[in-house]
Amino acid sequence: MNPSKILIKYGGNAMTNTILQKKIAEQIHLLIEAGHLIVVVHGGGPFINRALEKAVIHSEFIEGHRVTSPEALVEIQKTLIGDVNASLVKIFNSCDVRAVGLSGLDGRMVLATKKSVQIPLASGEIENRDLGSVGEVTRINSDLIEILIRNNFTPIIACIASDMEANAYNVNADNFAGALAAAIKADFYITLTDVDGLYLNFPDALSILDQVSINQLSELYGRVIKGGMIPKIQAIEAALNAGLSNALILNGTKPEQLYQFFEENKRIGTKIIH
């Protein structure tokens, strides 16, 4: 495959296992050696859970979003930027990847506004629920990313953003990564999950969908796209609608799939196209 600009959303079990972290870094090194330009976006749900528990801060989720109080935001920033990001940079650098740790705060790279959700009530009315310091991406300046990747550095970016007044926000990692992939005009947006792709009949490996168009996705919700896969696919849809050409679901617990797809032309995972 020709050299591509690839944004990888990194999370799931592959992120909590140090052996898999190193194997993914090694695969990314091979892709860079083959000429691909790589950007990595990460969240850190399990790490955040532990940090909030240690700080005795209760976690509440509304429509899949973590309600983020000012106290929780302090712990989330420390965890994502100070712990998880720094650890990933160290591991990637040990694998000869010239990793640079960033968040959306750096250079006002990712701007966001406060997000709220609407909850339908039994009465038929709609209730707006405040999520605290949870943000929705509104604008991206990709200049810093472009400078880095064109000079053979690999940005590793934590999903924290700010508004124009420098108020920080916790942003869903899938939404953050999808918006960034579209903004940098990535050739591929890869979501690393804990499964091999979208299954018509999970866990039958023969039922994995090789390729799906954006127009087919609506009929798959609730049947093929369920649970934790829903926000990932919604982020992919938004990115495709914003101009992204290709998205790919791969199994992050099988890091070799990255090289196999791009350099061995193996038909693995589920490719989603416009």
- Side by side, the strands of the main sheet go 5-8-2-1-11-13-14-12
Question: How many domains, as an integer?
Answer: 1
* N/C terminus separation: 20 Å
Radius of gyration (Å): 18 Å
Return the string of H and E elements.
Answer: EHHEHEEHEEEHEEEHEEHEHE
Provide the β-strand percentage band: 25-35%
**Average pLDDT value?**
93
Q: Sheet bearing the most strands, described?
A: 8 strands, mixed
DSSP summary, beta strand count:
14
Number of helices: 8
CATH fold-level assignment: Carbamate kinase
Helix/strand layout:
Layout (H helix, E strand, L loop, with lengths): L4 E6 L2 H4 L1 H16 L3 E6 L2 H10 L6 E2 L2 E2 L3 H25 L4 E5 L6 E11 L5 E15 L2 H8 L3 E5 L1 E3 L5 E3 L2 H11 L4 E6 L17 E3 L15 H13 L4 E6 L4 H8 L6 E4 L1
Parallel strand pairs: 1-2, 1-11, 2-8, 5-8, 11-13, 12-14
Antiparallel strand pairs: 3-4, 6-7, 9-10, 13-14
Characteristics:
14 strands, 35% helix, eight-stranded mixed β-sheet, 8 helices, Carbamate kinase, alpha/beta, 274 residues
Question: Can you summarize this structure?
Answer:
This protein is an alpha/beta fold and about 270 residues long.
